Amino acid sequence: MSQLTLSDIAQIVDCEHKTAPSTIGEPFGYSVGTRALNGHGINLSECKPVSQETYLAWSRRAELVQGDIIFAREAPVGGLGLVNGKTRLCLGQRTVLIRPNPNVVDSNYLYYLLSSEKCQRQMIEMSTGTTVLHINVADVRNFKLDELPRIEIQRAIGKVLFQIEQKIEVNQQIASTLEQIAKTIFKSWFVDFDPVHAKARGEQPVGMDADTAALFPDSFEDSELGPIPSGWKPELLGSLVELTKGKSYKSIELEPSDVALVTLKSFKRGGGYRHDGLKAYSGKFKESQVIRSGDLIVAMTDVTQAADVVGKPAIVASTGKYSELVASLDVGIIRPKSQSVTKNFLYFLFLTTEFDAQVRAHASGTTVLHLGADAIPSFPMCLPSQEVINAFSEIVNPCIAQIDSLSQQNSNLVEIRDALLPRLISGELEIPAELLEA
Hints:
The structure is a single chain. The two termini are 29 Å apart. By secondary structure, the chain is an alpha+beta fold. Helix content is 34%, strand content 20%.
């Protein structure tokens, strides 16, 4: 069987060799780094927002268009993302643009072909380096591929796999919208005190039924935190929650097992849970370090100096792959000491700018950021009445449950996609004639 190289079927454009500066405020576009290329797709929550000036500077060699493929040549080698053309994207550090020739290869097909286990293994074998593996751009150009099937077969295979990918993306968008709605409600009720301000003016809180509005006071009182709703209490978070640090482990303990560690990789940038952060673990652990579905965790370290992960929360989703989950040393487990606060209330509290400021003030380190032991316990907050917290939970609990359900759906879809991929690429599964004609 004759072989091709990537340069035979695509244009290869090298990446920038420095990190694009992030912008504050409304982004014009996003810089795609290797962290955003986890598994399949481009995770925008892991991309850096950039200004128009930065976007134009980073896109001067090639502006990314629909069908382009972004390839990670380091940290880790082989990450891939397919550009959908809906969002302005530019290449980040240690990434490479692969622009398929549409007359020779279908972009979806090439994207999934490069995602296959065979190609991924080949990329690792071509990589060099001791501390960090990387692959040279010249080797990317000369990357060898088997002879391609007919273009109509390529398109059919690409379409089948892409439709699964689209469903995953839609689920992610729905989950993101649900979380944003809950964040907006939390900020309105517990940070800006909008219902209390409205009642103090003699008005009905906007978008709130009378029974819920009746749970809020109609005045403020002075406290060490400043004016707070009457009857609510200033508290230090440490009086309300218990923080359990995770397990320190050795690399030799990372071996096949039905137990897995929840790691720093389990956190999305900005907060939220990632299924692909689990590591099989065979070592010992304490019962207090066991994590169950629905538990609230917080990142205690960060390898990004921008502090995009440290202090960020995640609610652990259910998994059918492992019988037990254990927190790693980079992870803290947050458990309420009483019913005064709920895990979902705390999750959204940890997403506020006020808590983020507390974390940044207590995080230190040069290469790796570490969260100080007193960062979480010393956070000053205003504790609402139990009735208001319960009302908030009634609204957001269905959202969190749906987010978990969508996350589990996506985990199942990933398994289906990954099972189909090698069989379709190898020709083991024959493409139905009706798909070839579509």
